[in-house]
Structures are given as structure tokens and as C-alpha cells.
Design a protein that fits this description.
The chain has about 190 residues and is an alpha+beta fold. About 40% of the residues lie in helices and about 25% in strands.
Length: about 190
């Protein structure tokens, strides 16, 4: 019986891998969305979305709700661990409504190594679809430069149980899953 269940689980994982391949194929058929060259505040001063690309052809912008969100902190902590791998392929930045001083203090406290920008006072989060009834919402947008145009080529929201935070797939291996677990800003050791 256990072998049959393990085989079924393996089949489901194979199906998820196949679905990801199909999603990448479908992604290629989407028409890129032209966007404004938004302005942000950063530690080094004002910066535009196009400047965030640097010498890369692709830019990940993680839409983070700011210092007060434990879930956004959880995602950022995980992304910090793979930032070198991500930056080898694309530019990367976290955008939040927090002012630059708040971002930098929180980043230093958590040991984050990625750049951050503040979208406070701009329409960026709203225009990208990352505001809702209760304020800002988390997710990621991917931008590229197409000739003289800046375009968003993909985006997706973040949420508990997603594939963008390693704890969720690992918790899925526990028979009871994550249970009522909630992230915290710190844990006693």
C-alpha cells in the first residue's frame, strides 16, 4: 500500500513539472505589456525602472508590502539566500512602500544583500496590480527592455503555499502540512 501511495505522489510531482513546462510555453505567447519608466527612491538616490535593469536584459521586481508584513519578510529572507544565483541571470530588486531609511535599517537587521527601492508616492504598485482592498499585495513582476520600450513580460502574486518560498514545499512533506504555522520576525533558538 505504501509503495502505491509513494508512486502516486511521484506521479503528481511529475505532473507539476510538466505543468511548469506548459506554463513556460504559454508565457511565450503573451504579448509584453508596455510600462512607464517609473521613478523610485533608493539608497543611492532617485532611480528609474529602466536604470534598475543595469547591464541585464531582464529585471525581477519583487512587490513587497514592507517591514510590517511577516510573510513578505519570509519571502525576502528566502530570496536573500539565492540572490547570487538570481543576479547571475537577471537584475533583481525589492520594491516596498517603506521609505529608504526604513528599508535599509530592516535589511541590515535581517542581513539582506539585495537592492531595495521605495515606491512610496508613486502609482507603481497600483498600476502593476499589487494593491487591493486592504492595501499593498505581494508578488513579482518581470521586466525587459524591448528596443526603446520597457515592458512587463510576466508577473504573479505571492501567497502562503506558493513555490516562491521554500518552506511551503518542505512543509508539504510533513503529513499534517504547515498546520496553523505562521511566520514570525524572530524565533527563540
Amino acid at each position: 500500500m505504501d509503495a502505491a501511495i509513494r508512486d502516486q505522489m511521484h506521479q503528481f510531482r511529475d505532473q507539476m513539472t510538466a505543468l511548469r513546462k506548459e506554463m513556460r510555453k504559454l508565457q511565450l505567447s503573451l504579448e509584453p505589456e508596455q510600462v512607464t519608466d517609473y521613478h523610485f527612491d533608493s539608497l543611492s538616490g532617485p532611480v528609474t525602472l529602466s536604470e534598475l535593469l543595469g547591464d541585464k536584459d531582464t529585471l525581477f521586481v519583487v512587490h513587497n508590502m514592507g517591514k510590517g508584513c511577516m510573510y513578505c519578510t519570509l519571502w525576502a529572507d528566502g530570496l536573500n539566500g539565492v540572490i547570487d544565483h538570481l543576479r547571475d541571470r537577471a537584475a533583481f530588486v525589492i520594491s516596498s512602500p517603506d521609505d529608504v531609511a526604513t528599508q535599509q535599517a530592516f535589511a541590515a537587521e535581517r542581513g539582506w544583500r539585495f537592492p531595495m527601492v521605495s515606491h512610496a508616492g508613486t502609482d507603481f504598485a497600483r498600476d502593476m496590480g499589487y494593491t487591493g482592498e486592504h492595501g499593498f499585495e505581494p508578488g513579482v513582476s518581470v521586466f525587459q527592455r524591448h528596443g526603446d520600450n520597457l515592458v512587463r513580460v510576466s508577473n504573479t502574486p505571492f501567497g502562503p503555499g506558493d513555490d516562491f518560498c521554500v518552506v511551503w514545499p518542505l512543509f508539504d512533506l510533513i503529513p499534517s502540512g504547515p498546520g496553523d504555522w505562521q511566520p514570525r520576525f524572530s524565533y527563540s533558538t
